Amino acid sequence: MNAMTTTDPSAVPSPGDVQAWIGGLRRELNNVLLGKTQVVELLLASLLARGHVLFDDLPGLGKTTLAKGLAKAVGGKFMRVQCTPDLLPSDVTGFSILNQKTREFEFRPGPVFSDVLLADEINRATPRTQSALFEAMAERQVTIDGETQSLSQSFLVLATQNPVESVGAYPLPEAQLDRFTMKLKIGYPDRASELELLSRSRRTTKEFEAEAVLHGDQIVQLQQAVTRVAVEQSVREYLLDLAECTRNHRSFPFYAMLNERNFVIPEDIQAVAAPVLSVRLTSNSIATDQAIESVIASVSVPRL
């Protein structure tokens, strides 16, 4: 597929195009992150639902590789910011500097001006610096020196965090957590995938890099296609029953698209319930998982 072809971002893709584009992304991401098909599916669901993802996991499991692979697959710009206690808001959004020749201020854009931004160890940055991402994540724009500048329509933040009990880690404020659609864990690969990774280490890394299969306009078209996925009233009520004490999110229609359906079923909600609801539940991970499983088991599934 030629990822450089220009298309109208307002155009409606055909069902065949939708599945072909999704299939291309799925293939490329599964090639860069081995043995983690469910993580790839949930990342795709969040991307097409215009949602951001928080990774709460051990280091060295492929989070950076996945972020770079996604940016390459969608033909987008990848930027990374290493969050530290001395990081300033302007280090994220950008700043104006005086040009000594023209005697005029010139804007130097920060890493937020990208398609895929990896915020590594986000909770090591101070709350003041974390707040620099609030507007960008919620509205895909930033206001600097009183001037508002637009970001990419498909702007996506992938963030990693350290355990709160770690030295130098700050709890993410509720306003920050509210801007993430899912919290995911990659976990260790299975044995077959680890053997493949060992085999890859003897070959060139370029062989396993993602290729550009889409571009920004096509991502926007897919995101718009999500809004045309049908959700029956009984399914909406089931969603509200499950999420009674949490915020309502819209990751479910795209999960239906991943499974080549133009309508949502209760199983779509169940499939993304844990990563969506866990963003806002503050108990430890084991208690959170058990609580979500208990909620799903206690709520009656509607008949369609």
- The Rg value, from CA coordinates, equals 20 Å
Per the CATH scheme, the topology name of the largest domain is Rossmann fold
Strand line-up in the sheet with most strands: 2-5-8-1-9
Oligomer: single chain
- CATH superfamily placement of the largest domain: P-loop containing nucleotide triphosphate hydrolases
* CA(first)-CA(last) distance: 37 Å
CATH class of the largest domain: Alpha Beta
Global geometry: globular
What's this entry about, in short?
With 304 residues, the protein is an alpha/beta fold.
Question: What's the helix and strand layout?
Answer:
Elements: H1 15-32, H2 37-48, E1 52-55, H3 63-73, E2 78-82, H4 89-93, E3 94-99, E4 104-109, E5 116-120, H5 127-130, H6 134-139, E6 141-144, E7 147-150, E8 156-160, H7 174-177, E9 180-184, H8 191-200, H9 216-226, H10 233-242, H11 252-258, H12 266-277, H13 285-298
Helix pairs in contact: 1-2, 1-3, 2-11, 11-12, 12-13
Describe this structure in words.
Helix content is 41%, strand content 14%. It has 304 residues and is of the alpha/beta class. The chain folds into two domains: 15-224, P-loop containing nucleotide triphosphate hydrolases (Rossmann fold); 229-298, no CATH class. The strands form three sheets. It has a five-stranded parallel beta sheet with strand order 2-5-8-1-9. A two-stranded antiparallel sheet has the order 3-4. Strands 6-7 form a two-stranded antiparallel sheet. The longest helix is centred in the first third of the chain and has 18 residues, at 15-32. The model is unreliable at 1-6 and 245-250 (pLDDT under 50).
